[in-house]
Specification:
- A hairpin with a 2-residue loop joins strand 5 and strand 6.
- With about 200 residues, the protein is of the alpha/beta class.
- The two termini are about 40 Å apart.
- Strands 3-4-5-6-7 form a 5-stranded mixed sheet. Strands 1-2 form a two-stranded parallel sheet.
- It has 6 helices and 7 strands, in the order αβαβαβαβαβββα.
- The protein is elongated.
């Protein structure tokens, strides 16, 4: 039977669910836990964007702890927006994979290409690859360390030159920037992670 914490409980949300999980474990029970985002309410209701931000912080923290089997996100008039946020929380916590995951550095003086433009170009080519994690890093100084568990990496190696990684391993060096996105796609294909995108409109048929 699904179990959750009562709304309005006078405990911080994360603390309440951690206590529930610990109590179930002590009792030797394995009931699935439903995570909800709103247990205590201010006198004035949360603005929708703040309610959703709070949901991401609270539910994401619990999922990262390994607590939770289902989630309920509230705070939007439309169910679609809340559902999209729920999917994003599950993806970010590593619990489910619904889409391509991207990791990009915040950019600094060492960045060797236009991070926003290149990221958009890579997304346009790869955003249909469910479950693939791609890192886009501006330089080789911090990039390889920051890309951690990415499947593939696109890293600035020198001005107008890109190095490509598989996991933490550099595979191709000094690729001209103009060709680098195509070479990244080739690399993904070589490692069996590429699928062709569905034709536009195919999903609706």
């Amino acid at each position: 039977r699904l179990i959750t914490v009562k709304d309005g409980l006078a405990l911080p949300t994360i603390t309440a669910f951690r206590l529930l999980a610990a109590r179930l474990k002590a009792l030797g029970r394995s009931n699935p836990i439903l995570l909800k985002d709103c247990l205590t309410f201010p006198a004035t209701p949360w603005a929708p964007h703040l309610a959703l931000l709070r949901a991401g912080v609270v539910i994401g923290a619990l999922l990262a702890d390994g607590i939770g089997d289902a989630i309920l996100v509230r705070g939007e008039a439309g169910a679609g927006q809340s559902l999209r946020l729920a999917y994003n929380i599950l993806q970010a916590a590593g619990c489910r994979s619904f889409k391509t995951d991207y990791v990009a550095c915040p950019s600094c003086g060492r960045t060797l290409f236009n991070l926003q433009t290149v990221t958009a170009r890579i997304k346009a080519r790869t955003e249909h690859l469910k479950g693939v994690k791609i890192a886009i890093m501006g330089c080789i100084v911090n990039g390889p360390g920051e890309m951690a568990d990415a499947d593939f990496g696109y890293v600035g190696g020198a001005p107008n030159k890109i190095n490509l990684y598989v996991g933490k391993q550099p595979i191709k060096f000094n690729i001209p920037e103009a060709e680098a996105v195509d070479r990244l796609v080739d690399l993904i294909r070589e490692h069996g992670k590429w699928v062709e995108p569905e034709p536009v409109g195919a999903a609706a048929q």
